[in-house]
C-alpha cells in the first residue's frame, strides 16, 4: 500500500517508518522541519515538507501523493504547552481529514490518548465516555482529543489508537527527558492516581497492525495500570533519583485503561507487558 505518515520523525513515527517499509509498503513521511527530511529518507521513505497547520499545503500534498492510507501521528510535545498540542489535534487533524477526503483516501489511523476518559474506579474500557465535563485546564486536552477523534471518524475506514503514557527513546521519561529531570529534583509526588504506560516500540507495532483492524477506537496500553505510589518510586530507583514524596491525592481521570480489546479481540501483544521491565530496558539502552 501507499501510506502517508504524518509526524514521521516523532518518537513513534521514526520507529514506524522502517516497519512499514520492511512490510513492502510505499511510505511517505511528512514533517514540518526541513532539517529532518534526510532522516526520513534514511529510514527508507520519501519525504514531504508540510506544516500541518497550513491547510492549503496539506491539501496540495495529499492531492499529489494520493496515498491509500494516512497514519496520523501528529503531536506537539516538545514542551508542556497543552494548548499547542490541542491545536495540532483540532486544526491539524481537521486539515488532514479534509485533505484526505478530497484526495480519495478511505483509511486513516490516528494517535489519541487513553487518559481522556471520564472519572471511574476501574481501568477504562473503550465503551466508557470521554471526559466531556472536564474543567480547565484538563478541558483543553479533552476538547482536542474529542475534535481529533470525531474528525478521523468521518473517514470510511478509521482506527483510533488510544495510547498509554509513552516511554522509551526520545520521550519525557528517557535520559535527560523533561519528566526525568523533574523526578531527579523531587518535583513530582507519588500519588494514588492510576496511569497506564506504553513503550514506544509497542506503539509503533500497534500502528502497523492497525492497517488491518476494523473501525473504532482501541486502548493501546500495557498490562499493568498502576498508582503513582507504585510506579514512580520504581522509576526513580531505576534512574538513580531520590525517592519521591508520597501524597494521598489523585487528579481527575487518573484511572488507567484496559487493553482487553486489543489483546483479546485484535491479538495485539505488547513486547513490554509491564512498565517494570520496560523502564529497566529502555533506561539501560
Q: What can be said about the biggest beta sheet?
A: 7 strands, parallel
Approximate helicity band: 25-40%
Number of strands: 11
Average residue-wise pLDDT: 96
CATH topology: Rossmann fold
Instruction: Indicate the CATH architecture.
Output: 3-Layer(aba) Sandwich
- Broad CATH class: Alpha Beta
> Structural class, from secondary structure content?
alpha/beta
Let me know the CATH homologous superfamily.
NAD(P)-binding Rossmann-like Domain
Write down the overall geometry.
globular
Please state the CA-atom Rg, rounded to the nearest Å.
18 Å
What strand order characterises the main sheet? Answer: 3-2-1-4-5-6-10
Low-pLDDT runs: none
- Supply the number of helical segments: 10
User: What order do the helices and strands follow?
Assistant: EHEHEHEHEHEEHEEHEEHHH
Domain count: the total is 1
β-strand amount = 15-25%
End-to-end C-alpha gap: 33 Å
Describe the structure.
The protein is of the alpha/beta class. It has one domain (about 1-165, about 195-220, about 255-270): NAD(P)-binding Rossmann-like Domain (Rossmann fold), CATH 3.40.50.720. The protein contains ten helices and eleven strands. The chain has helices at about 15-20, 35-40, 55-65, 80-100, 140-150, 180-185, 200-210, 230-240, 260-265, 275-280; strands spanning about 1-5, 25-30, 45-50, 70, 105-115, 155-165, 165, 195, 195-200, 215-220, 225. A seven-stranded parallel sheet has the order 3-2-1-4-5-6-10, sandwiched between helices. Strands 7-9 form a two-stranded parallel sheet. Strands 8-11 form a two-stranded antiparallel ribbon. Helix 4 (about 80-100) links the parallel strand 4 (about 70) and strand 5. The longest helix is centred in the N-terminal third of the chain and has 21 residues, at about 80-100. It is globular and about 55 Å long. It starts with a strand and ends with a helix.
Amino acid at each position: 500500500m501507499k501510506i502517508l505518515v504524518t509526524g514521521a520523525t516523532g518518537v513513534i513515527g521514526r520507529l514506524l517508518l522502517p516497519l512499514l517499509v520492511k512490510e513492502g509498503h510505499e511510505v511517505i513521511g511528512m514533517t514540518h522541519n526541513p532539517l529532518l527530511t534526510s532522516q526520513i529518507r534514511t529510514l527508507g521513505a520519501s519525504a514531504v515538507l508540510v506544516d500541518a497547520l497550513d491547510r492549503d499545503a496539506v491539501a496540495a500534498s495529499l492531492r499529489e501523493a494520493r496515498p491509500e492510507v494516512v497514519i496520523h501521528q501528529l503531536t506537539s510535545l516538545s514542551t508542556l504547552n497543552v494548548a499547542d498540542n490541542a491545536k495540532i489535534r483540532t486544526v491539524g487533524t481537521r486539515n488532514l481529514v479534509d485533505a484526505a477526503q478530497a484526495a480519495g483516501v478511505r483509511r486513516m489511523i490516528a494517535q489519541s490518548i487513553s487518559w481522556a476518559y471520564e472519572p471511574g474506579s476501574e481501568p477504562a474500557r473503550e465503551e466508557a465516555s470521554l471526559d466531556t465535563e472536564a474543567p480547565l485546564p484538563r478541558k483543553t486536552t479533552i476538547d482536542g482529543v474529542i475534535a481529533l477523534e470525531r474528525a478521523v471518524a468521518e473517514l470510511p475506514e478509521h482506527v483510533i489508537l488510544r495510547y498509554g503514557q509513552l516511554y522509551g527513546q526520545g520521550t519525557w521519561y528517557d535520559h535527560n527527558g523533561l519528566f526525568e529531570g523533574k523526578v531527579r529534583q523531587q518535583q513530582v509526588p507519588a500519588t494514588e492516581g492510576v496511569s497506564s504506560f506504553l513503550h514506544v516500540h509497542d506503539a509503533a507495532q500497534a500502528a502497523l497492525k492497525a492497517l488491518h483492524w476494523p473501525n473504532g477506537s482501541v486502548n493501546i496500553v500495557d498490562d499493568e495500570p498502576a498508582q503513582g505510589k507504585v510506579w514512580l518510586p520504581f522509576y526513580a530507583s531505576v534512574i538513580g533519583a531520590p525517592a519521591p514524596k508520597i501524597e494521598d491525592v489523585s487528579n481527575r481521570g487518573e484511572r488507567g485503561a484496559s487493553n482487553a480489546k486489543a489483546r483479546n479481540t485484535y491479538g495485539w501483544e505488547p513486547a513490554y507487558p509491564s512498565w517494570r521491565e520496560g523502564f529497566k530496558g529502555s533506561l539501560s539502552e
